[in-house]
Amino acid sequence: MPSSPDLYAFVRGELVPLTHAYLHVSDLAIQRGYGVFDYFRIHETQPLFVEDHLDRFYESARLMQLDVPMSREALRETVLELAQRNNLELSGIKLLLTGGYSTDGYTPVPEQASLVMIQQPLTMVEQSVVDRGIRIMSHEYVREVARAKTINYTMGIRLLQRLRELGLDDVLYHQQGVVSEFPRSNFFIVRQDNTVVTPAQDMLFGITRKKVLQLASQQYPVEEGVVTLHDVWQAKEAFLTNTTKRLLPVVELDGQPIGTGKPGEVTLSLLAAFQELEQAALAKASVV
Amino acid sequence: MPSSPDLYAFVRGELVPLTHAYLHVSDLAIQRGYGVFDYFRIHETQPLFVEDHLDRFYESARLMQLDVPMSREALRETVLELAQRNNLELSGIKLLLTGGYSTDGYTPVPEQASLVMIQQPLTMVEQSVVDRGIRIMSHEYVREVARAKTINYTMGIRLLQRLRELGLDDVLYHQQGVVSEFPRSNFFIVRQDNTVVTPAQDMLFGITRKKVLQLASQQYPVEEGVVTLHDVWQAKEAFLTNTTKRLLPVVELDGQPIGTGKPGEVTLSLLAAFQELEQAALAKASVV
């Protein structure tokens, strides 16, 4: 993160310059990859859907038996303080909670948990990527403790090289043909009858996923359930959702086109509806 | 690690006081739990079985597509320099290689990999623990990329609380009843006919495991293959192996005794043979 020398971060109780944001090597993130996080957008100084993200952050911590060493109110205040200090036009804040400094390098010491907040400028996906959609491959894998947003990205990062070699954009996890999620995104298909379907097992409950389900249910039949690789190839459309990409059309899986092989109408109408929802949420927040 | 203020560590190219051994929060260990490590004992300034550990460290790095940013010779030299600087009676050195400082918090930048070495005093298992053996439970789980010694201990650390509640010493991983390993140790059984058997799938190739297999084959039939939970309860003896515990008798699994429920003869004879091997290896090294 060398490009932003003037940014501040929050590390174990203190606002410090990001260039001085360090953790001791005894931290259980470094020793044992043990931690959880969450990530949300900041428009100027306004966080987007922050209550949803705080809900999930506390839930991830609970699932990993970690205590957030700060009340929800204090956490929200610190986020706002950091956002005001950094004052970026468009950015993301990452909340990170690790097992913390450990004397034996294995056992978490509750009062030594490391709470970190990092804010970085963010560039949203370019329109040309939305226009053309992305091409993906499948890979058999289920994330450990999939309901928690842990820092474990062993498989996702290991697969980067294969994606580069194949010239593909992302990898969709499945188990015995039943699809779950991408390393950092949720997955949806639109069936031929316009039913919007998303997996409900072995995946993280994405915030964008939740909003899209709400929006879709106003216009289309909606299902949370089993999606197989076969279902994907039979679908009319497919797309992914996450905080930085909103909705992104998926037009090819394992070399076979999905639907017409082009971004679909339902996907694009939901993307437009999501952008309206975003604007409404930000306008509402700015009034308060 | 607050108890050893005078110790030195090696962090990204420099020997520094352990109290100043920090990594920037952009490191992929902190961001994404991405890294590998190895760990070996140091007797005064002599590393034990260091070539085996270096072999495995480079193999773990390769499996995780990381490059060790130092030749094997330079790495060995740095280990010896650190051991001489710290000059502890009995200790362990941890070699750690992470995905390193990343500009986007996800993609490894090869020239930014973080190589870290930490040395800490070590206390071996007390004789009373060997005399009474340990009690364990089973848990269905397979480590990701089990052949690599990654820093991902999500499951092992998450299970610590249950072990504490049940008053047990460790957890043995299995998949559909086929046993693999402990979070930090290998597993052996001794059948009624004195055959020494250890799992060969979904586990890390432990250095102590390798030495014990060599020693056992001089006295007993030896097998690397499938071990089921049922086999464990039918066994005459069971034990675990790792670098800090050598061989430790396992006398109970999921509330049922193994064999007589006491440490067995074959286990204790192999432990004695292993201690002799250790002494010989250290004596040989001190002559060089």
TrEMBL record, chains A, B:
It comes from Hymenobacter crusticola. It catalyses: L-isoleucine + 2-oxoglutarate = (S)-3-methyl-2-oxopentanoate + L-glutamate; L-leucine + 2-oxoglutarate = 4-methyl-2-oxopentanoate + L-glutamate; L-valine + 2-oxoglutarate = 3-methyl-2-oxobutanoate + L-glutamate. One of its GO terms (molecular function) is branched-chain-amino-acid transaminase activity. GO terms for biological process: amino acid biosynthetic process; carboxylic acid biosynthetic process. The lineage of its organism: Bacteria, Pseudomonadati, Bacteroidota, Cytophagia, Cytophagales. SUPFAM superfamilies: D-aminoacid aminotransferase-like PLP-dependent enzymes (SSF56752). This is branched-chain-amino-acid transaminase. The keyword Transferase applies. It comes from the Bacteria. InterPro entries: Aminotrans_IV, Aminotransferase-like, BCAT-like_C, BCAT-like_N, Class-IV_PLP-Dep_Aminotrnsfr. Its cofactor is pyridoxal 5'-phosphate. Its EC number is 2.6.1.42. Keywords: Aminotransferase, Pyridoxal phosphate, Transferase. Pfam families: Aminotran_4. Belongs to the class-IV pyridoxal-phosphate-dependent aminotransferase family. Pathway: Amino-acid biosynthesis; L-leucine biosynthesis; L-leucine from 3-methyl-2-oxobutanoate: step 4/4; Amino-acid biosynthesis; L-valine biosynthesis; L-valine from pyruvate: step 4/4; Amino-acid biosynthesis; L-isoleucine biosynthesis; L-isoleucine from 2-oxobutanoate: step 4/4.
